Amino acid sequence: MADYPDFYYPNEDVIKNAHIKDWDSFNSEAMNDPEGFWEKHARELHWFEDWNCVLDESNKPFYKWFKNGKTNIAYNCLDVHMQTYRRNKLALVWEGENGDVLTHSYYSLHRETTKFANILRSLGVKKGDRVTIYMGRIPELMLAMLACAKIGAIHSVVYGGFSVEALHERIEDSESRVLITADGAFQRGKIVPLKEIVDEALKRAATVEHVLVVKRTGQDVYMESGRDMWYHELAALPIAMQNGSHTEIMDSEDPLFILYTSGTTGKPKAILHTHGGYMVGTYTTLKYVFDIKDEDRYWCAADPGWITGHSYIVYGPLLNGATSFMYEGAPNYPYPNRWWQMIEKYGINILYTAPTAIRGLMRFGEAWVNRHDLSSLRLLGSVGEPINPEAWRWYYNVVGKGHCPIMDTWWQTETGNFMITPLPCMPLKPGSGTKPFPGIEMDILDEDGNPVAANQEGYLVIKKPWPAMLRTIYKDPDRLVSQYFSRFPGYYMTGDSARRDEDGYYWIIGRVDDVIKVSGYRLGTAEIESALGSHRDVAESAAIGIPHEIKGNVIYAYVILNNGVVASDSLAEQLKAHVGYEVGPIAKPEKIEFVDSLPKTRSGKIMRRVLKAKAQGLDPGNLSTLED
Ligand code: PRX
Question: Which of 2, 245, 288, 433 has the most neighbouring CB atoms within 10 Å?
Answer without folding.
Answer: 433
